[in-house]
Design brief:
Number of helices: 11
CATH superfamily of the largest domain: Butyryl-CoA Dehydrogenase, subunit A, domain 3
Shape: globular
Number of strands: 12
Order of helices and strands: HHHHHHEEEEEEEEEEHEEHHHH
Largest sheet: 4 strands, mixed
Length: about 400
């Protein structure tokens, strides 16, 4: 349904990315998973940069492809089928610059957006996550309120002085710049947050512990520490205290991208299960001929298709500048659930070898577990939806 709404040129691009990912990324996926965070392999990033796919939604004005949300979502799904970790690197990139797209100045866009386009293999990092319950998010009177962040800032001569840390920062060790959510005044709520975008070379920014995740291992994650970091006005995004509004606006816009990665994991697990079921013999015939197996695959196909339509709908609504808040959260819930449940059922169909470390099926399951948390858990998004009912 939704594929008919994009241009022939964009459909051709999606198919090109599918072929590229299958031929160049998929054969390295097990190796990427095994390497983890220790030695970042730039080969996949170089490949995406060569085809201007590190942040394909960025406007052509800044060197990007200027793709719609829907086309970008389809492309991320294709990359994620080959390797969810590689797709997550691109998602983190787009998360990093999204506040600049919606609320940044022209000078900020020229400085940072252009770093991710035009064949340059550079990455941005998003520092929004806490390693302790400091980022308090609650729903009060149908409004989501973010109370505080573990990076604090105070004004000094029109500059912000930052102290604190952020954890589980995607692309953290390998990024050229970083987007940070800062708490300005703990006595305030909405007005007490600010978003800043900083070159990682600024004095006072340093990398902390590397985080060894169970999944999405190609996407580097680490702690980042801020010690008396002086933020000049050109790095401050939006008006003073506008961080809450910008954060929530961009969360809605970015959710379909993370959801697309979940679609890719679910699809990869499903396709692996189908292939094995048609080859694996049970009592002299393929296991696919057993109704218990074939019916399970039908259920998986239906769940995958339903999740895909939900994700594509949210992307389409964003492109049409319609309210996508509920649709984006629903897409996140359905796609994350599909990735987890389909990858789990696929392991049962594949059998014992699925449980051997390094076999694709167990990688899909670990990736699905990570994707259920990235950009908010199911419970968080249910709270957002419930507040709007």
């Amino acid at each position: 349904m939704f594929r008919s709404t994009i241009s022939d040129q964009d459909r051709d691009l999606v198919m090109m990315v599918r072929d590229l990912a299958r031929q160049e990324i998929a054969p390295q996926a097990v190796l990427y998973d095994a390497q983890g965070n220790e030695n970042f392999d730039w080969s996949a990033v170089d490949l995406l940069a060569e085809h201007n796919l590190l942040a394909p939604g960025i406007s052509q004005k800044y060197g990007g492809r200027g793709l719609s949300h829907l086309t970008t979502t389809m492309i991320l799904e294709e990359i994620a089928v080959a390797c969810a970790g590689v797709a997550t690197v691109a998602v983190a990139n787009m998360h990093t610059v999204s506040p600049l797209v919606t609320s940044g100045t022209e000078a900020q866009r020229q400085e940072f957006l252009t770093q991710l386009t035009g064949g340059k293999a550079r990455l941005g990092a998003l520092a929004m996550t806490e390693n302790r319950p400091n980022l308090n998010i609650s729903v009060v009177n149908s409004q989501v309120e973010i109370i505080s962040s573990s990076v604090t800032g105070y004004w000094q001569d029109n500059c912000l002085i930052l102290n604190g840390f952020k954890d589980y920062v995607l692309n953290g060790q390998v990024a050229s710049f970083i987007t940070v959510l800062v708490s300005l005044d703990r006595s305030e709520k909405k007005s007490g947050l600010q978003i800043v975008v900083l070159p990682v070379s600024l004095p006072g920014i340093r990398m902390g512990a590397v985080r060894h995740k169970i999944g999405l291992k190609y996407c580097n994650s680490c702690e980042i520490i801020f010690e008396n970091v002086k933020v000049e006005p050109q790095y401050i995004v939006g008006k003073p205290g506008s961080g809450f509004l910008i954060f929530m606006q961009n969360l809605d816009r970015m959710l379909p991208y993370a959801s697309a990665v979940s679609l890719g994991v679910a699809r990869a697990a499903f396709e692996t299960a189908v292939a094995v079921a048609k080859k694996r013999n049970i009592m002299g015939h393929p296991s696919f001929e057993e109704s218990a197996v074939s019916f399970a695959l039908v259920d998986m196909a239906a769940q995958l298709n339903a999740a895909r339509q939900s994700v594509y709908l949210a992307s389409w609504l964003i492109d049409k500048e319609l309210d996508s808040s509920q649709a984006s959260s629903k897409a996140k819930i359905l796609s994350s659930r599909a990735a987890h449940e389909i990858s789990s059922k696929a392991m049962e169909i594949v059998g014992g070898r699925a449980c051997i470390k390094g076999y694709p099926s167990e990688i899909y399951l670990r990736d699905a577990e990570m994707l259920s948390i990235i950009d908010g858990s199911e419970q968080f998004h249910k709270s957002l939806i419930a507040a709007q009912l």
